[in-house]
Amino acid sequence: MSFLTIGHRGVMGVEPENTLRSFVHAEQAGMDAIELDLHLSKDGALAVMHDADVDRTTDGSGPIAEKTLSELRELDAGQGERVPVFEEVLDAVRSPVQAEIKDVAAARALSEVMLRRGLVDRVEVSSFHDEAVAEIARLVPGVRTVLIASRWRSDVVDRAKAVSAATLALNIRRLTLEVVEQAHAEGLKVIGWVVNTQDHLRLVRALRLDGATTDYPEIRRAGRFTA
């Protein structure tokens, strides 16, 4: 089984997260895929940023949803980087992308880009929200989807199956072998996040995970050996 190492917001442990600089570094480091986050701007652009507000990761303040793309472009996202839109990331790197969406509205906007550019084979879509996963699956036939959870109940595998997700991405600090075995028995892959230490890597091996999301490029090399 192929073990995947996914760059979390690029390689956010060493670069400004969710910036073109971070994504290019992740690709150059040999990450198997690049994870990023999408929010809609006031004028409907797919802005690449994790938080709903710009405060933590830029020199601005306020909700993304209340700013136009032009206004977002004026912000410094770290080391002079600008807030990218999804299409710019696609053009800046060739790596497979795991795009996390926050809601159904983002799913609809993302579906338009995926269908227009033929991205089913390159872009996997993830979300904490079952309804967003179900919506992107409805809008983009054949899309690969991931249900994410930090805390979950015993029905998490059933939830993934209900929205036709192929993969579960689960918090490595709360993941158990029982959940992994249940998911694998149902044909689902399991990715652990965020895997940043040797202890995490040992847990990845013990749990027989299919992949790991990490902030640091060196985890890929260690992960290849450990997993």
TrEMBL record:
SUPFAM superfamilies: PLC-like phosphodiesterases (SSF51695)
A GO BP entry: lipid metabolic process
Annotated GO MF terms: phosphoric diester hydrolase activity
Record lineage: Bacteria, Bacillati, Actinomycetota, Actinomycetes, Kitasatosporales
Residues of the GP-PDE domain: 3-224
Protein name as annotated: Glycerophosphodiester phosphodiesterase
PANTHER family associated with the record: GLYCEROPHOSPHODIESTER PHOSPHODIESTERASE, CYTOPLASMIC (PTHR46211:SF1), GLYCEROPHOSPHORYL DIESTER PHOSPHODIESTERASE (PTHR46211)
